[in-house]
Structure formats: C-alpha cells, structure tokens
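Shipment paperwork, digital attachment
Item: protein structure file
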Amino acid sequence: VQLQASGGGLVQPGGSLRLSCAASGSVFSITALAWHRQAPGKQRDLVATITNGGSTTYADSVKGRFTISRDNAKNTVYLQMNSLKPEDTAVYYCAADLYYINGGGNPVVSRSWGQGTQLTVSS
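Attachment content:
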C-alpha cells in the first residue's frame, strides 16, 4: 500500500486545516488508518485512528479539536484540525495497518507510512 499525504502548511493559532492521505495499491489489506505526528527532537506520537468499521480514537491532546474521517470510495483518510495551537506544530504522517495472507499462506501484519506533511502553527 502506498500513502500520499497532503494539506500541510502555516496556520495561525486558533485556525483550522485539513490533511488528506490517499491510499493506493492493495487497499483491500487495510484494517485501520491513522495519523501520527513528530515534533522536532521528539518521538513520533499517535494522533488519531479510524478502523474499517468507522471506530475512532484520539490522543488526549487533540480530543475535541481534531476529527479523523475516511472516504472509502476514494481510499482517503482525512484529519480535520480546529483550534490549532503552536504545540500542534509537527510533521504529520498517515499510516495504514495491513493484514493479508502472503504467497506462502502465512498471515502478515504490517504498517505502511506516508511521506509526511509539515504543519506549522505560528503567528
């Protein structure tokens, strides 16, 4: 599965932005989609996830401000970000959790990552 993220940019505090991530390839193997972020000098953290059934989870730091959604017809996951804060500044990565049976008949669980898109929240 290949993931192409887009939508990052420079936003003032309190502003909004929507990130998109389009999946291609063996999309039938996707079990869940997620957004992660990594600020300079920090580890990559999970921001939000959405399963094939539409269940969502959020990091405490973004609850009530961010919304993850997906358009299955377009194989695209979105992250709507509102009330942005300077501490939201990071590179945002989309990820797809995969499950499939390989050529040897063995189950494989893996994760694919997109290339990352920069969000900067600053006045």
